[in-house]
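Record Chemotaxis protein CheW, 154 aa.
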Amino acid sequence: MAEQLETVENIRKQYIVVKIGNEQYGIDISYVDNIVRMQKITRVPRVQNFFKGIINLRGEIVPVMSLRIRMELEEDVFTNASRIIILKIEQQSALGIIVDEVKEVVTLGTNEIDKVSGDMKNAKVSFIDGIGKNGDELISLLDIHSIIEEKENA
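=>
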């Protein structure tokens, strides 16, 4: 009976592992609509500095955000590995986020994820929901809602 209870509580989720700088981050795959190569981003005047502009994705206008600048890291450096991840969150319109590289998809159980504690004033920490352990690698799991919410309040 105890063994059966344990498997119910260990909910497994898939995450897309991306690189931003030298760190790995996980994005809950249920939010990911599409992954596209870097393309021309049209600037939009008078928006927050972390918004790079908009792209036209098959007729849909999608705002694009720099995750690096959003987390108060250094400016983006685009390479052949750079990608825009298109997120769809419930009823909201699509949003693109720029990442340095998309690595892989991993499946993590709740027993492989530690919650983050610490100073939530640190921009980077406030966007992290937990730390996933995949073998001997650590993956910071992004809290997509906290990244998006700030956008709407600003």
